[in-house]
Amino acid sequence: MQLQKTRDTAPEMALRRELHRRGLRFRLHKKLLPDRRRSVDIVFPGPRVAVDVRGCFWHGCPDHYRRGSVNAEWWEDKLQTNIARDALTEEQLRAAGYVVVVVWEHEQVVSAADRVERAVRERRNIGP
User: According to the model, what pLDDT value does residue 2 have?
Assistant: First the structure.
């Protein structure tokens, strides 16, 4: 698992390219929560929008999650821990005043970028 890429993944890069193409500028892999090792993939600091790009397997996608057959109990525990950590991070970010946009790796890049752009523009009071 140490070789598993945690940043600059293909879905994240595609979303970043689309957001940049739309003229949106952002920060990458920022630690927004004190006393946490967790970072957010894409951050818009001014409007306080945090974007989390999640892999379907590692984060238990509601559409694509399948229980493993080899060492199933260990994997179930691992994925449930990831899901709980994601939920806690979202809760803490919202409490800190951020809007959290979750993008799954299976989503179309354009529709995901639309959601992110809408959140950023609403927070900037620019409108669509």
Answer: 47
**Residue 48 carries which DSSP code?**
T
10-residue mean pLDDT profile of the chain (128 residues): values are: 66 96 95 83 96 86 75 87 93 95 96 98 78
The CATH superfamily of 10-28+54-123 is VSR Endonuclease (3.40.960.10)
Tokens of 27: 């920060």
pTM higher than the cut 0.70: yes
Query: How crowded is residue 54: how many other Cβ atoms within 10 Å of its Cβ?
Result: 22
Residue-range domain boundaries for the chain: 10-28+54-123
Question: CA 69, CA 75: separation in Å to the nearest integer?
Answer: 9
Residue 33 backbone dihedrals phi, psi, to 5 degrees: -105, 130
Separation of first and last alpha carbons in the chain: 41
